[in-house]
Fold each of these.
Amino acid sequence: MHTDSPPTTRVLYLAGWGRSGSTLAEGMLDQVPGLVGVGEIKFLWERGLLQNRRCSCGTPLRSCEFWVEVLHEAYGRIPDDDELRELDEASRRFRTRHLPGLLLRPAGHTSRAELRWYHEALSQLYRAVAKVSGADVVVDSSKFPSYLTALLQAPGLDVKVAHIVRDPRAVAYSWQRHKEDPDAPNGELMPRMHPGCTALYWSAWNLATERIAHRAGLPYLRFRYEDLIAEPDATLRAVTRLSGVPATAVRVGERGELFVRRTHQVSGNPVRFRSGAVPLRLDDEWTTGMAPRHRQLTAAVTFPLRRRYGYRDS
Ligand SMILES: [Zn+2]
């Protein structure tokens, strides 16, 4: 049956700056009936398909049964390398890390005609994810505020924004640490960043997320990583309600562990490879491990947004 407008696909966009716990939050949301967490879809073309990195199920993406079925449903085949490069090139337009650009870029502006094919391709992809998974809502943890504008231009997507924030001092400390990335080609470590730089990005990124969601009139909920760990059930219920599916209790074990099934997340923090009983523990190593001058710098640069999000001075 042919219809002029495609059916609506519901998308819960997990926004927030890197190392704020979005991958863990997505893995938790994936446990909720009706939701499917599929990682940072923005990186599907490059890291997922061109580089054939591993899906969180452990299989290289081109061999992952879930993604192969999604791509066949969306496009009838896996796009060839030239097509993948074009898709990646288009998504890079929505990947700005330029700080003024993050704050000034208008939300939901008119689609450029030459990118219409890209927005159609996104629409087909999210629709296929929903169909193959059987979920009511697709959870995308791409996080970039700029990529959110790409989703707003894709026809037939009903987008809601769940914005995760974390204490900027914990985030800055995480960006300082040497961390292995089991998924990186050539055994590279995860990227690192100076606390001053992290603090600037944390502020600009979070402000841009709020601004884009507000200007586009999107349903929006901000939640704190610390609350997700301390009160997982209540926090997940609130996010689930935003997504539009009935909130159900999430099973937390006696020792505070969460039972996570295997997911099919593209890219994201290495925590996505964990399944089974995952301990929910607040990583507060920064409170003892972070150099005082870095703490003070981060606290100063992120004030007053930090205070508005409920993170005190000490
Ligand atoms: Zn997979």
Amino acid sequence: VANNIGLDLGLTHFCITSAGEKIDNNRFYRSLEQRLIREQRKLSKRLEVAKKHNRKLDECRNYQKQKVKVARIHEKIANQRTDFLHKLSSRLTDENQIICIEDLNVKGLVKNHKLAKSISDVSWSEFVRQLDYKCAWKGRTLVKVDRFFPSSQLCSSCGHNDGKKELNIREWICSNCGTIHDRDINASINIKTEGLSGIA
Ligand SMILES: [Zn+2]
């Protein structure tokens, strides 16, 4: 395999590749997340009712039933996530010899949405773990780029550092060479370039 690739952890997507692919996972979770929020709300209401009537939780059948329901949704989400991550890490390690990633797992992603955020965070570290051992199995190289490398500030065309970009800026024009960049694709190309330069 002669391909090398850079991966950037996205805000709007699970990850973005230097080949220009934006990989979404939200669609797997979105409907389940909504259900989880709904059922969790129901659970806390039942807890309130139990407290109000001074009842022991062990004896509240409605509460216990709801608790099981919530646990099942958690399990379902975890299974779907694992399945998604395994498929993706298998494909990427099949298709590429060197995979460059950022050495971090939190990027303030999915603002104001604690649940989605925790899912994304867990996913990324699990994803890196899978890439790690699958690269070892298949004789590939996983390169981790320093977390302070300014992947979203550099122009991947001319190397100019264009300065900090706010999170809501999805596209920008290099003030030096005029290239129009998709924020995430540009970042993943920079991660690839930086990663490859480190092992050359
Ligand atoms: Zn430029």
